[in-house]
Structure formats: C-alpha cells, structure tokens
Amino acid sequence: MQKQRTYLVGTSKLSLEFGDLTASNADVVVSSDDSDLSMSGGVSEAIRRAAGEQIRVDTLKRTPAKLGDVIVTSAGAMRAKYIFHAVTIGEGYLSHDEVIANVTHRSLRLLRELGLSSIAFPAIGAGVAGFTLETVAATMAETIVGELRRSEAPLAVTIYLFDRFGRMKEIDYIEFFEEVSIRTRGLSTATNFAATAGPTRAEPPVRKVDQQPRNVITKKIFLASSSELREDRKEFEIFVSRKNSDWVDKGVFLRLVVWEDFLDALSHTRLQDEYNKEIRTCDIFVMLFWTKVGSYTGEEFETAFGQFKEINKPFIFTYFKNAAISMGDAKQDDLTSLWNFQKKLKALGHFQTTYQNIDDLKFQFNRQLDKLSEIDFVRLDFN
Known about the structure:
Strand content: 15-25%
Structural class: alpha/beta
Mean pLDDT: 77
Helix content: 25-40%
CATH superfamily of the largest domain: Leucine Aminopeptidase, subunit E, domain 1
CATH class of the largest domain: Alpha Beta
Low-confidence stretches: 188-204, 261-269
C-alpha cells in the first residue's frame, strides 16, 4: 500500500500520509481536543505523550476554550515549534462541517501570522469527536485547497490519516482519499487511487491540482467588536468563509481579519497599533455593538473613518444588536459609551443598522455584499 500521495496546489504542496502525526517534521502539529484541552484521548493523547507533561501546563492556562477555537501552545519535546489545539468537542451550535472548516481555516491563518510554512493535521474530529470520515475528508480538502490556491507564499500541508494506535485500516485511507478526490475541485479527477495503489516508493508521486480559471484578487474585511459578542463574531467568520464559495467565481477572495488572528508575541509595538495598520489596508470595515463601545473599538472606528475620508476606503458598516439586556448586569458607563457613539454616528450622517440575532446579521450583511457586487466592487482598485 502506498503510504503518501502529494499534490501541487499553486506553489504549495498538500500531502495525504498514512502515518504517525507525532513523528512529523512540520513547524506546527495540529491536535483535536475538547474545550478543556484535556488531551486525554485519541490524537491529543498521543501528542501529549510525545510532547511531555509540560504541554499540559500550557494548556491549563488557556482553558476553557470554545467549540471551533484554535489554541496555540508550545510543542514540548516534539520537533514542531507549536501545537495548535483545535477544539472539536464542546458546547455550541456549530455543525460538524462548520467546526472542521473553522479550525482548519484558523490554523492556516495562524501559520502565516507566525511566519511559518509547514503544518501537519490529523483527520480533524474523525476520532473521539465522532465526525464521519466523509465529512472530514470533504471539508478539510475544500478548505485547505482553497487556502493554498490563494496563498502567496509556498506552504507544505500534510494530513495524517491514522494515529500511532493503528485504528484506521487501509480501506479507510482509500475511502478518505477517494472522498477528497471527488469533493475537491480538480484535486484528482483523472486517476482512481484504488486502481493505482502499489508498493511504496522512495519518492511519492506528485500531482498538480487544477488551478482557478482566472486570477483571484483579495478584498479584506476587518471585523471589530467587543468580547461580549464573541459568539456572533465566530458565526460571522463562518459566514464569510462560506460566502467565498460564491465570490471566488467572481474572481474575489474575501479575507476576514479578526483580532483573534493576532498574537501578542508578534507585535514589537502596542498590539492595537497592529490592528490599526490592518484597518488602513482593508476594503470593508464591519463593527458590531451591543451594550458598550470600548476605547479600543472607538479608536478602530476613528482609524477606519479617517482612512475613508482620505481615500474613500474602506466601506464602513455598523451593526447594533437589538437584544435583551439584563439591567442587573448592565453598567451605566458602558451604556453611556454606546449612546454617545450612536450620537456621534448620527452627527456624521452615518447610517447604522440593528440586528436581532446572528441570522439577521448574516442576512443584512449578505445584502450589502450583493449591492457591492452590483456596483462592480470586485474590480474596484483604491490604490
């Protein structure tokens, strides 16, 4: 049985390997774990054993985590520089494919932010989390290939298809591979793996993934809000990721920038300065509000508005959540900051929008994207 198959995706490589994830030489190894990062079963336990108990000290500092989050820790005794802990078990309302897409997408973003170039994934959620192999294969393949096609820098991504406990059989690998082939655009349309499988070679064959039929340009969306809207932010990120399936056909990739993508260790200045730098280069600026407007959120608006006055960029959208507030928990200073900011927007002549829940937010922002598409936003060049 051939144990590895590698594909060229633009200047990057995607490999499917039937082997031990903990033996990977990648810069980053991805674990699949619960919201407590207990590392007590399946691939996460194997990583804990390989990395040593010090890694548990790191994870305990970062719990509890949310379903769909990716938590970064050291790699202990492993060869990798970091472990990315993908939270696939926990309370929440995300579907299996949403969890997989979210943690895969976030992991690749963090890889780029850290200036690294190689990452090793397990079949995310296919073990203790109980996700079906078909869902894992289709969602990981689509997300990774989409990211690699748009990556300017060459990356090396490997998906390991069984762990050190040997629970997966050869037929599982074949089915996984075939599902990847079928569901992913152009990954493998000409060759049937099951028919060509043979003895392992020293140099595994490399195949080229069909490229997009047109050049794809990137439009950046910066999402700003306070931490009280964490769940809405996460759902918004998933919405943008799915919207990309439609906009790629228009020749556009929507890149969402959120503060979770930034690491304190990467900033030599005040971290807010890094956010502001990103805001000045974004094409769309989205702000979410509920009970308060923090000083940093206000600073982000000033940065975006100042940039808009100078070069008519970015488009600015503000959304205020119209949901019940517990007056026992509400703080007068927070509510006053919200009301003052609303007055400021009115004085500027800026149109603000309210939303009832996350579905309403996605519906309203989707309409705005459609309007931008109608004015040929995909071809607007502000530079």
